């Protein structure tokens, strides 16, 4: 059995999430789904946060002991610095998104459907 690379695992996870989102679009809303999906979204964002942190940590030392080149006329140090800047922006965005997903899950947990008085006995 072939060993799966981290990149392939992330790609497959993204495809599974996209598939679930497409299937969800055409379904009747259910109370339990709102909370479960919002909570799962928070977990996915936490995983993306961790992945971004790993990439940032690796980029910090990527040029040490290596002679780097780019596919443009830009200096490799400039490209690394730009990548780190984008990683920091992603860090900020993921932090905010995780908090928003957490807040969404909390609010969804507070929702309930009132019983129909006509169906009570």
Helices and strands in order, then pairings?
Layout: H1 6-25, H2 31-61, H3 76-110
Give a written overview of the molecule.
With 121 residues, the chain is mainly α. The protein has a domain at 31-111. 71% of the residues lie in helices and 0% in strands. The chain is built from 3 helices and no strands. The model has no long low-confidence stretch (mean pLDDT 89).
In short:
By secondary structure, the protein is mainly α. Helix content is 71%, strand content 0%.
Helix content: over 70%
C-alpha-based Rg, rounded: 21 Å
Order of helices and strands: HHH
| Large-scale geometry | elongated
How many angstroms does the end-to-end distance come to?
A: 60 Å
Q: SS-based structural class?
A: mainly alpha
Relative strand content: under 5%
Descriptive labels:
single chain, 121 residues, mainly alpha
């Amino acid at each position: 059995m072939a060993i799966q690379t981290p990149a392939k695992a992330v790609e497959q996870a993204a495809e599974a999430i996209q598939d679930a989102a497409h299937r969800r679009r055409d379904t009747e809303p259910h109370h339990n789904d709102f909370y479960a999906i919002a909570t799962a979204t928070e977990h996915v964002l936490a995983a993306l946060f961790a992945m971004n942190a790993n990439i940032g940590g690796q980029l910090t030392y990527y040029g040490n002991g290596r002679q780097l080149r780019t596919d443009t006329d830009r200096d490799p140090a400039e490209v690394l610095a730009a990548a780190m800047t984008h990683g920091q922006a992603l860090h900020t965005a993921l932090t905010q998104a995780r908090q928003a997903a957490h807040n969404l899950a909390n609010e969804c947990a507070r929702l309930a459907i009132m019983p129909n008085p006509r169906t009570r006995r």
